[in-house]
């Protein structure tokens, strides 16, 4: 899905996400080195989750990811999130 630049909410979200993006390097062992502000913003702890998102990935603290997943499952099961035709057509 691509954001529509003339939609104010989508443009704002894109500015926040891309405006705070930073380059990260890998060490000689192939580990991704995150900078302090990213670690602080994501509240990363010792245990993290690397979550694939189609062509991208997200890095979560393990506890925050577990909470996010439980909240998502609860919202889907309760019908709070409507599974539109667009979402039903989503294939991975």
Secondary structure: elements and pairs:
Blueprint: H1 8-19, E1 25-26, E2 32-33, H2 36-41, E3 48-53, E4 56-61, H3 62-78, H4 85-88
Antiparallel strand pairs: 1-2, 3-4
Describe this structure in words.
The chain is of the alpha+beta class. Helix content is 42%, strand content 17%. The mean pLDDT is 85.
Task: Give me a quick take on this structure.
With 92 residues, this protein is of the alpha+beta class. The chain has one domain (8-88). The protein is built from 4 helices and 4 strands; from the N terminus they run αββαββαα.
Features:
single chain, 92 residues, alpha+beta, two-stranded antiparallel ribbon, 4 helices, 4 strands, globular
**What is the total tally of β strands?**
4
The side-by-side strand order for the widest beta sheet comes to 1-2
Q: Report the average pLDDT across residues.
A: 85
Which range does the strand content fall in?
A: 15-25%
Number of domains: 1
Order of helices and strands: HEEHEEHH
- Biggest beta sheet summary: 2 strands, antiparallel
Portion of residues within helices: 40-55%
> What is the count of DSSP helices, taking H or I runs of 4+ residues?
4
Give the termini separation: 13 Å
The radius of gyration is 16 Å
Note poorly predicted spans. Answer: none
């Amino acid at each position: 899905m691509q954001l529509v630049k003339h939609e104010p909410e989508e443009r704002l979200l894109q500015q926040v996400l891309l405006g705070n993006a930073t380059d990260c390097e890998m060490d000689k062992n192939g580990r991704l080195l995150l900078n302090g502000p990213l670690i602080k913003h994501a509240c990363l702890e010792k245990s993290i989750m690397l979550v694939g998102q189609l062509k991208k990935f997200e890095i979560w603290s393990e506890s925050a990811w577990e909470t996010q997943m439980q909240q998502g499952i609860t919202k889907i099961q309760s019908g709070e999130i409507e599974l539109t035709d667009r979402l039903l057509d989503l294939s991975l």
